[in-house]
Amino acid sequence: MNTTGTGLEARGLVREFTAKDGTVRRAVDDVALTVRPGELVSVLGPNGAGKTTTVKMLTGLLLPTSGTVLIDGHDVVRSRRRASLACGFSLGGDTGLYPRLTARQNLEFFGLMYGMRGARLESRSRELLEEVGLVDRAGDLVGSFSRGMKQRLHLARALLHDPAVLILDEPSAGLDPQSAAAMRALVARLAGEGRSILLTTHDMREAEELSKRIVLMKGGRVHTESTAAELRLTAAERLGHVVNAVFAAAEAPEGIKHCPGLTHLELDGATVTLRVSDGAAAVQWLLATFPGATSSVAVTPPTLEEVFLDMVAAK
Fold first, then answer.
1. Which residue range forms the structural domain that includes residue 304?
2. Element (H, E) at 312
3. How far is residue 8 from each of residues 161, 167, 215, measured CA to CA in Å?
4. Which of 201, 226, 251 is the last residue of a domain?
5. pTM higher than 0.70, yes or no?
């Protein structure tokens, strides 16, 4: 793989659709994205946020109304062939696979499209089928595959030509927990090899585990872009912190309900969960008010899922 590439860069992406009555709907509005070599960036957003339309423009499947997409320095519109050779993409589902061909035949077909031939193509197909756990099903028709198996074959197809840039649309969707964990490990390794990876997902744990940066989209625009940790800490200013405390006694003390900044309280015997406006102040109050009574105290900012839901709810 070429490790000296420039990754993925999108500038000012706009996509408009015209309805039958002549009205124009702007599905993507001035989106900018950058994924550097060795970096994995996750794009999150509710249905209708513009994620799928954006991904289709990044892969060249949909022409932008305006704006530019560069894949490893190649313009997706003006240099389509070069951009395609530098990019592998997996959009999942049944699209992009031939159900009446076997898994091996699917890879060999797409390999031919990328200019691969003979022993090189055969070796690469076998290597990738083993990588995604489908080597034992290489001779089976794809039409007989489960959704999860198709997801794994999609990833193998995306990797066939050893691209510097990968665009993956919900690669773990439909996978059982063990297969999803293996998929995440593989994606993380691919980023570690120096590839630029753009990932769309609805799995917040997956996004937080894999991503260097997270892009939140809403209404066709980039709403926020930062690391998962920074997003959570920033959201804590609005949503507060969660404080978990375990008391040595069998029951938590009654006075816990007087914790300053308390907005929500859950009691389960000696275990207490508090939502507070200021985590540090709450911990200080707990330790001062009930000295020596707690066996453990921990404070955490909002989860990434809470950050996401807060963004969706905001007007």
1. 239-313
2. helix 304-313
3. 17, 10, 14
4. 226
5. yes
